[in-house]
Amino acid sequence: DAGVIQSPRHEVTEMGQEVTLRCKPISGHDYLFWYRQTMMRGLELLIYFNNNVPIDDSGMPEDRFSAKMPNASFSTLKIQPSEPRDSAVYFCASRWGLNTEAFFGQGTRLTVV
Amino acid sequence: GENVEQHPSTLSVQEGDSAVIKCTYSDSASNYFPWYKQELGKGPQLIIDIRSNVGEKKDQRIAVTLNKTAKHFSLHITETQPEDSAVYFCAASSRDNYGQNFVFGPGTRLSVLP
Predict the structure, then answer these.
(1) Per-residue pLDDT tens for A59-87?
(2) How many CA atoms are closer than 13 Å to the CA of B79, on its beta-carbon side?
(3) Which of A40, A60, A107, B5 has the smallest number of CB atoms closer than 10 Å to its CB?
(4) What span, in angstroms and rounded, lies between the C-alpha atoms of B20 and A27?
(5) Average pLDDT of span B91-95
(6) Three-state secondary structure call for residue B82
(7) Are B46 and A105 in contact (CB < 8 Å)?
(8) Of B37, B10, B1, which Cα lies nearest the Cα of B110?
(9) Rounded to an integer, what distance in angstroms lies between the CA atom of residue A72 and that of residue A67?
(10) Which of B89, B98, B106 sits opposite A55 (nearest CB)?
């Protein structure tokens, strides 16, 4: 398996535009996580899914953020409209079962100007 | 919910010396504690983990200890090498009725000086 695959690796967009980040988890994993990493706040959990169902989205900053997992092999994180304070590195991670290793993707570096 | 603290935030050691990073957690129900290493421009990668039924685990130069009573766990790196320079994150599992996620500490930037 190629690991967790995220796209794009880098995204630069203007304030107010819609941004969609994509993630392909490792095949067979039943948990998927979206994290945001900034210098100020570290690694923040935004939302996680279990068997494609959103379990906890309390970390989603506001209604501008939404995430979907239409099937076991794909998830999206959407920001609409984007703002400069959304600039960060967004990571997707997947895991199988409980108390096991979470595998992280390479991340998407988002810059909103 | 779970809260994880991590110290120090930065650590510099001479090559060959040992490095110790300490974490505390708040939820006594947490039972899985992974440590991740993040190199520049990459995603975090697991280096070692420990479960609550074990007090210590070792893998070559890396060891982790867990004190469930005090709710703290530590990462020990011996004979440090320049390639150990990275940001290290501890994490604790947080379980609810529907699933389990990880809560990460704020990270420790380790610099190994040649």
Answers:
(1) 998 899 999 999 999 999 999 999 999 99
(2) 3
(3) A40
(4) 35
(5) 86
(6) helix
(7) no
(8) B10
(9) 14
(10) B98
CA A99 from chain center: how many Å?
A: 21
The first and second tokens of residue A43, run together, are: 């690694």
Q: Any idea which residue has 């809260």 for tokens?
A: B3
Provide the pairing of β-strand B72-77 with B62-67: antiparallel
User: Measured at the alpha carbon of residue A73, what is the angle toward residues A68 and A77, in degrees to the nearest 5?
Assistant: 30
- Measured between CB atoms, does B104 come within 8 Å of chain A? yes
Q: Which of B15, B38, B25 is nearest to A35 (CA)?
A: B38
pLDDT of residue A111: 98
What token pair was written down for A13? Answer: 């967009």
Report in angstroms the alpha-carbon separations of A110 from A90, B9, B45: 7, 25, 21
Query: Which string of DSSP letters, residue by residue, matches A51-104?
Result: TTEEEE-TT--STTEEEEEEETTEEEEEESS--GGG-EEEEEEEE-SSS-PPEE
In degrees, rounded to 5, the angle at the alpha carbon of residue B12 between the alpha carbons of residues B7 and B13 is 115
